Each structure stands twice: as structure tokens, then as C-alpha cells.
User: Fold this.
Amino acid sequence: MVTKLDVVQALLPKITVPQKSSGVAFAPSNIALCKYWGKRNVELNLPVTSSLSISLSNLGACTKVSLADAATDQIILNNEVVASNTVFYRRIVQFLHLIRPTKDTVFNVTTKTNIPVAAGLASSACGFAGLVLALADLFEWPLALEQLSILARMGSGSACRSLWHGFVEWQVGSQANGLDSYAYPLEYHWPELRIGLLLVDKSQKPQTSSEAMQCTVETSPFYSLWPKTVSQALQETHAALASKDFWSLGAVAEANALAMHALMLSSTPAIIYSQAPTLDYMQRVWRARAEGLAVFFTQDAGPNLKLLYLVKDEAKIKELFAEVQCVAPFEAVPHTAECLYDL
Ligand code: 2P0
Assistant:
């Protein structure tokens, strides 16, 4: 079986030494319009289907990484030292093990996010993408972004899509080692598009996406329908993006999210990320749409909803959803960590 280490060693230069005192990077969070749900290879985070996302502009993670003269890696998240007995710490350290030039190399990783961590807002995606970009900056790896996307996938599947702004597609690939399963940016530009974040619950979710995905793949009687569902959704999404047909885009994204949650509902045990306010928001979206407003939602592995709408309707959206946080995915975004945060 191909391991993560095999893949990383195939990608990284044989000798890799820091070229500067620290590496820094920003990576945006991303929201899938056609979802990644299910792995064909758990070790390598290889997906069952392709997926397509939109990045969230300047919402994401800034990371600074440097070598440390210490016994163990230190991870600081939003100004707090992460305890070494947490899942979060272990997940990052396991990833760092893959790229340590020598077994004695110790890292300091400082990350700041401006999105809630582990609340279905793709914090692991921007976290691992930011970490990979910061490491690439530190070591000046001679790698293309597509190759860094493969490295990010080793940390978290959806992280491979967080290396770019705008619309991004993660191609499923077919090779056993996953070297053809990476993301790349799509040419579509849609400055009028807006994402509205509706936070229901900022606390950490009870079940990780990986666990939920695996349970769905193994137990949902409907999982066999998923690859075809996504393949059609991808075709329709591309057509909607090419013709800037917002009603089609929204309809296919909302249907795809609901189909993913239907898979979870049909798993054993059933997985339900929605909470009562989630359903209330859905009803409000449907009522607004019945009255002619072009608004749709998508939902990930958490109770929060993300609205899709156009800038011309923003005043109405804010009137209907007073608490919405509006994101303009195509507005100019700062490119370096220092632009956003003082790390
Ligand atoms: C996505 N999600 O396409 C889907 C839709 C959540 C719902 O990718 O196990 O943290 O690290 O590969 O990427 C969240 O799962 O899972 C996710 P791993 P990940 O955005």
C-alpha cells in the first residue's frame, strides 16, 4: 500500500533546508458547491468524486512556520499554545512528521484564523493549506501549486482546494498514489456573487468529517448513487458558471448539499449535523425564494448554512437575515500573512 510518506518523498526534493528564518502564508477557507464526501483511499485522502468550491476571500488562516531549538513542536493557534494531548496537535504533528528534513527537526507553527475552528467552515482546509504554503515559503520547495495541493490533501482532503481564490476544482484522479488527484483554479470570474455565512453554532462539532464520511460510505444504502449525483452536479455547475446562470448554480449547489446530508441521514448510525435553527434558516430561504428572491443555501459538516446570492440582492438578504456575514469572493484579497495579521 502506498503511504503518505511515499507520496511526500516522491514530491519533495531530496535535500530540503530552510532558506529563510520563517515562512508565512495565508490560505482562504473554501466552501464546496459540489461536495467531496467519501474516500476511495483513507490513508491518502483520495476522493470518490471530483468536487468544486469557491474560496472565501480574506476569511481563512495565516500561518508562520520556523525551526525551533526545542524538544517538541510548538503550535500556537489564535494566541494560545495548543496542548500536545489534543487531537488538533497530533493531527498537525503527524503532518509535520511527513516533511521533517531530519528526525531532529522541530517546528514552531503559529496560526491565526478569522473563522470559527471546526464548525463546518472549512477551518482544517485553510489551516493545512496555509501550513503547506508557509512550509513551501520556508524551504523554497521548487514545486508547482498543483503539487503543493497534493501535499495539502495529505493533511485534509478539502485543503487541496484552499490554495487559490475564486472557483477551484479538485479532480478525482485515478492513480493509486494520488499524484493526479489535486486541485486547480477555474477561469470563471463572477464578481457579483456573494456568500452569506449564517452561524448557528460556533462550537466544535461532535463528529469529525472523516468519521462521518467513512460511516456514510460504509453504511448508507444510497452511497452507490453518489458518484453519478456529483458527476451530474459538476456538469450543471460548469454550465451555470459559464453562462452566469445564478438560478441554476444555486439550485444545483443546494440540491447537492441536501443529497450529501441525505446520505448521512441514511447511515447507521444516522448523522445529523443540522440543529433546529439550521432548519429554520432553510425554511426562510425557501420562503424568500418562493417570493422571487434569488437565494440558495449550502451546508457542510456542521449546522451552519452558507447562503448564495448576488450583490444586487444584498440589502434584502441583510433585511431577512440580520445576522448574516457577507463575503465577496472576488474582491481584492491580501496575499501575505502580514497583510492580515501580526503573527
Ligand atoms: C467539502 N467537506 O467538499 C466537504 C463537504 C465537508 C462537507 O471536505 O478527512 O476536513 O480531512 O479529508 O476535508 C470536510 O472534510 O476531510 C469536507 P478529510 P475534510 O468541503
